Amino acid sequence: MSQQYPENSYSFDDFLQWRNNADYYGEDPFFQKVIQYYAEKQWPELDKVAKKISPRVSFRWKELSEAAAVPEKQPYIIHFDGHNHRIDRIVRPQETLILEKEVFGEKLFADSTSPFEKLVKMYLIYQNGEACISCPITCTEGMVALLEYYADTPELKKILTHCKDGINGNMAIGSQFLSEIQGGSDVPANIAEAVEEDGTWRIFGDKFFCSATHADYAVVTARPRGSEKVALFVVPAWLDGNKEKEIRNSYTINRIKWKMGTSELTTGEITYNGAVAYPVGPLDKGVQCSRHCPDLFPAHRGHYCCCIHGPHYQGSNGLQSQKVCLWFDNRRFPSGQGAAYGNGKHCQAYHCRNF
């Protein structure tokens, strides 16, 4: 026979009070020990860096991320202005714009940021989930790694600087638009075409799954006309002076996709109608350039980010789940009996098995 309680109401206030005051770095002794072990002499400085950024990530940036994640604030697109000019303006909530400016303002990919400092900051930032931040960080790092190896023209060097250090205080965001509807992620199956006209390369064709659609630059694969090989290009979203005028670089964003998860992130379908593009690496080595170079996986180096993004987000979730499980056990066993039943271990074990 189940036990009867005079009051069957409940409140999450105790849990919320803890969560709203939880510092990601301060609540994660395991991560502290890992960094201390591997960073060795860099540990004291990294500890200072983590303690400085963690309050922003844990409180201000978390609040901005949560505010932007509600369904009514999902990004959408305005195809035409009031004078029937095609502009394809992507509209995102103000919270996302503020968050993006502050996070990318950390200059994660600048030469002045050490690999360990970047790792520590990304680990903490990723604990807030997607927020239209995690994927763009991943994609930008892939573009930076690619251009650090292959940038050999003034245009590509300028793009690299824009992504690493910013220009006039504006940090650029990169992305990779490789997938096409007929082949998905099978890049050699691409049919988008690259045509050289008077020394300028232009891209024609469709890309079907373009995440971080709002990016300033995209790594794009396309076949040079007359070739069976796929080449790699960087395509600016706008040419110089046209961003303020909302004149895109000869391409249209057909729609912003609806997704069940990470819906804060812009993901679109794009048609290139002669977009100016800058070739990266040999024209017959596009697949290899996008996948391999010594000690790096440039365009797909973002896979590394994905590998740490999931565990980092789950690390935050795991800590919160432990607290929620304790709340459930205390709910089942009132008057402090939950502690006697293992501080949430019963509920924890149940959720772990099902997870």
Would you kindly provide a written description of the structure presented here, covering whatever features stand out?
This protein is α+β, with helices and mostly antiparallel strands and 355 residues long. It has a domain of 157 residues: Butyryl-CoA Dehydrogenase, subunit A, domain 2, CATH 2.40.110. It is 41% helix and 18% strand. It has 11 helices and 9 strands. The strands form 2 sheets. A 5-stranded mixed β-barrel has the order 4-5-9-7-6. A hairpin with a 6-residue loop joins strand 6 and strand 7. The longest helix has 31 residues. The protein is globular, with a radius of gyration of 23 Å. The protein starts with 12 loop residues before the first helix and ends with a helix.
* CATH architectural group of the domain at 80-89 and 154-300: Beta Barrel
Determine Rg (CA atoms, Å): 23 Å
Gap between N and C termini: 30 Å
- H-E string: HHHEEHHHHEEEEEEEHHHH
Please tell me what the overall shape is: globular
Write out the strand line-up for the largest beta sheet, numbering strands in chain order. Answer: 4-5-9-7-6
- For the secondary structure, the number of strands is 9
Low-confidence stretches: 292-304, 338-344, 346-355
Put simply, the count of helices is 11
Strand content: 15-25%
Structural class: alpha+beta
Summarize the structure in short:
The chain has 355 residues and is α+β, with helices and mostly antiparallel strands. The strands form two sheets. The chain has a five-stranded mixed barrel with strand order 4-5-9-7-6. A two-stranded antiparallel ribbon has the order 1-2.
